[in-house]
Amino acid sequence: MFLKTVNVKKHFGEVKAVDGVSLEIEKGEFVSIMGPSGSGKTTLLTLLGTLDSLTSGDIIIDDEDLSSIRDVDTFRSKKIGFIFQFHNLIGYLTALENVELPLHGLMPIDKRRAKASELLDLVGLKNRMHHIPSQLSGGERQRVAIARSLVNDPLLVLADEPTGELDSSTTQEIMDLMKKINQEKNTTFLVVTHDPEVAKRTERIIVLRDGEISREELVKSASIEDIMTLKNSTLGHQLLQKESTDPYLEKLGLFREGKLTREGELLISLFDKVEDL
Question: Based on the number of CB atoms within 10 Å of its own CB, is 274 exposed (0-12), middle (13-18) or buried (19 or more)?
Fold first, then answer.
């Protein structure tokens, strides 16, 4: 198993930001983490990225227990890449200089320039590498951030709301790009997002609530994921309970006098069929 957490907890006083998370992720998986604000998504990501210490539990990445690693900074720089919602590019450096920055002191300038150029070409910015961030669009800046996250050939890329500031069209382009890199380089991606459209482009969704995993599901297709989203919605819960006091659901014909109708039963049967796929 490439990444494994065992009963991981991170408490801030009485606040249980992450409270007993155990999960396993295979090498080369493309996984998303969803959940409401305050559910522990970003906190979990910082723990996996060795940016914060655990209250208790174990995290194992590439057969190494993080608690036994003496030089965490070196481990992080060699094995983990980060993509943030606000790309965090240095404004006065070009795209090329931003991407090569993590390699300073690790290799000669000609080699790091060549590596950064190769990655910018990979993300479709071959002709924009000498532009500074203010001369790039939001999507282009995020592409630079993705290239920078790959410059150390990481085994794991952690992305915190990487499309949060992008429009829907650019979001699709960025997701396509990350998926391409995931497939071509077999790089493991873990993406925190609040956007169901982003999550259903991944292979597996882990949902957090109150610092715990509330559910996990494999993404069979975008359409099937839409049905699963409906099942886990307020409407879905009322259908499964076969009771509702919502007058608008009565008008839609799903309930009559608070009881489920045949139309409502058909929706439940759809949920059951999806589970059996």
Answer: middle
Using CA atoms, how far apart are residues 2 and 158, in angstroms rounded to an integer?
Answer: 14
Helix, strand, coil % over all residues of the chain, rounded to 5: 45, 25, 35
pLDDT, tens digit, for every residue of 131-169?
Answer: 999 998 888 888 888 888 888 888 899 988 887 776 787
What φ, ψ does residue 22 adopt, rounded to 5°? -125, 125
Q: Pull the structure tokens for residue 35.
A: 């959940």
The tally of CA atoms less than 13 A away on the side-chain side of residue 97 is 10
At residue 181, φ and ψ (nearest 5 deg) are -65, -40
Q: What are phi and psi of 131, to 5 degrees?
A: -95, 145
pTM for this model (two decimals): 0.80
Centroid of chain to Cα 181: 14
Strand ranges for 77-186 from DSSP E: 80-84, 156-160
Q: Which residue has the tokens 């007058």?
A: 247
Residue 188's pLDDT is 93
Q: Give, in order, the Cα–Cα distances in Å from 228 to each of 37, 78, 222, 236, 268.
A: 21, 37, 10, 9, 11
Element (H, E) at 271: helix 262-276
